Amino acid sequence: MLALALTAAIAVLGLVAIGVGAAEVDASTVIEVIARRLRLIPGDDVTELADRIVWELRMPRVLGALAVGAALALCGVILQSLTRNELADPYLLGISGGASAGAVATIVFGVSVPFVPEHLTITGTAFAGALAALVVVLILATGRSGTLPPGRTILAGVAVGQLATAFTSLAIMVFGERDVARTVLAWTFGSLAGVRWPSAVVLIGAAVAALVVLGFAANTLDAFAFGETSARSLGIDVTRARWTLLVTTALVTATAVAFVGQIGFVGLTVPHLVRIATGASHRTLLPLSALAGGALLLGADTLARTLRDGTEIPVGVVTAVIGAPVLVFLLRRQAVRS
Predict the structure, then answer these.
(1) In whole angstroms, what is the distance from residue 150 CA to residue 172 CA?
(2) Phi, psi for 94 (deg, rounded to 5)
(3) Rounded (10°) CA dihedral 216, 98, 76, 229
(4) Average pLDDT, the chain
(5) pLDDT confidence bin for 115, thresholds 50/70/90
(6) What CA–CA distance (Å, rounded) separates 312 from 220?
(7) Which residues pair with 308 in a beta bridge?
(8) What is the rounded distance in angstroms from the CA atom of residue 163 to the CA atom of residue 129?
(9) Integer Cα distance of 70 and 140 in angstroms
């Protein structure tokens, strides 16, 4: 039932998101344009302007929002399961900050690789930054016994994230030109304004690949819920599984950050809410979290570009406004239960 409800919510939100904006497009025209592009109907009545607005500008942005929201929610599920820490997500563990630092360094210093498109170069350096941040966090947080204490993991993540943020700010203020600094500063708060079909396809591919890879690891993640000792007793290669899942998380996070910037709270709050509704089994938690994360970010992005005429609010600000009260509720709920 929850899957159907989320799917219906995404469909409705998608129609609303494509229709609203500086140029309003009614739902029937939106459906007609999409059906025409999919060659389901002739669609001779569709104007060129409506086709451009719906298909070329807003459709890829909607799909990009769904993909990024799903990807961040999946990363949150994985990090919370592996660290057994309910506050773990790509943002709090410094992975987003590391990816952002790598991407910003490429933009500010003009790093380029021969015969490699710029967006792939940015994605590559973002991944390198995310992986470096992850390695540092694990080194700082891992105890002598090889475990990851929840409190120490979060502290290490916050420290690495702040260091990455300091580097990003320094690079922008000292070395970045004014136009570059303005662009990068807006990007660090998250924005889907630049998502077009090529980037939307990459983001969708990353989200689908993550869901498939992590879906095969559902039983492994269930075993991790009881601790590494229990997982090892079930015949799981704990070290290999942990690193495979963490590197997957870093790659997915880096891809999202490279295209839309840092967006917090999606990976933190969505897994909690879905877990409350469905339980802790990862076979249901993973796909439902992906749907819920996509719906949340799509709604947040729609609000970000429509709340104020002529001005687009960074989507990361909107997710923080939505996610912070949810986090307070979850913390309060946990305190009452304990």
Answers:
(1) 33
(2) 80, 0
(3) 60
(4) 87
(5) confident
(6) 42
(7) 311
(8) 12
(9) 29
Instruction: Tell me 47's DSSP state.
Output: -
Give residue-wise pLDDT tens across range 264-279.
Answer: 899 999 998 999 899 8
DSSP count for the chain of H helices, then E strands: 15, 0
Distances from the Cα of 156 to the Cαs of 67, 134, 140, 270, in angstroms? 28, 10, 6, 23
Give the Å distances, CA to CA, from 265 to 239, 245, 255, 270: 28, 20, 17, 8
Cβ contact 214:245 at 8 Å: yes
Is the predicted pLDDT of residue 179 greater than 70, yes or no? no
What is the pLDDT at residue 19? 95
Cβ pair 133, 97 in contact under 8 A: yes
Sequential DSSP letters for 73-107: HHHHHHHHHHHT-TT--TTTTTHHHHHHHHHHHHH
Select from 179, 206, 181, 187 the least CA-distant residue to 260. 187
Tens of pLDDT, residue by residue over 141-156, are 887 766 767 678 888 9
- H helix intervals, 142-171: 150-170
Amino acid identity of 69?
G
- Distance CA(86)–CA(121), nearest Å, equals 33
By C-alpha distance, which of 223, 246, 211 is closest to 79? 246
Query: pLDDT at position 311, please?
Result: 83
Largest CA distance in the chain: 69
Question: Residues near 331 by Cβ (< 8 Å), separated by ≥ 6?
Answer: none
Instruction: Among 98-107, 202-211, 230-239, name the most confident range.
Output: 202-211
Contact 270, 289 (CB under 8 A): yes
∠ CA(27), CA(32), CA(33), 5° rounding?
100
Intra-chain end-to-end CA distance of the chain, in Å:
30
Each residue's pLDDT tens digit, 8-24: 999 999 999 999 988 89
